[in-house]
Write a structure and sequence with these properties.
The protein is of the alpha+beta class and 146 residues long. It folds into two domains: 12-47 and 133-144, no CATH class; 51-129, Alpha-Beta Plaits. The chain has five helices and four strands. A four-stranded antiparallel beta sheet has the order 2-3-1-4.
């Protein structure tokens, strides 16, 4: 793989935290860290432009009216929702893991609807592209397995 060099500016406190983390993990190559960070960024956000995706949407919300609204929304997206897991964090908060498979636009719409529910505190998608032309994902996985 051909490599190219470029410079970045980051806040000094961020660099200090990076160096501390690298020392604690016994890593001494900033370039390698930046490459991995960029690869993870592309993996995390690349799905937003692809059509065929799979993943999990994590949701933390206040127990109560949210339960009904979340259930109603899930029924509107049955074609992309494979399964759900409901966890009680405490008496007031619940966590929902929604496993999805399907069209990226449809999954983005689902995430948007969930984010707009009153009482939803956190929405964290972990979505990966399955597009056959997504060579970046394939290369990233192959390189990580070496």
């Amino acid at each position: 793989m051909e490599k190219t060099k470029f410079g970045i500016y980051i806040p000094k406190d961020l660099l200090v935290k990076l160096d501390e983390c690298m020392r604690s993990l016994n890593i001494n190559n900033r370039s390698k860290i930046m490459q991995e960070a960029l690869q993870l960024f592309l993996l995390e956000h690349g799905w937003k432009t692809d059509h065929k995706v799979k993943g999990i949407i994590g949701v933390v919300y206040r127990h109560g009216k949210c339960d009904i609204v979340l259930t109603e929304i899930q029924h509107e997206y049955l074609e992309i929702i494979i399964s759900t897991i409901h966890i009680h964090l405490d008496r007031e908060r619940c966590m929902l893991a929604i496993i999805v498979d399907g069209d990226g636009d449809r999954i983005r719409n689902l995430i948007s609807e969930i984010m707009n529910i009153k009482g939803v505190k956190i929405v964290r998608p972990l979505i990966l592209s399955l597009a056959t032309n997504n060579t970046f994902y394939k290369n990233f996985i192959e390189e990580k397995s070496k």
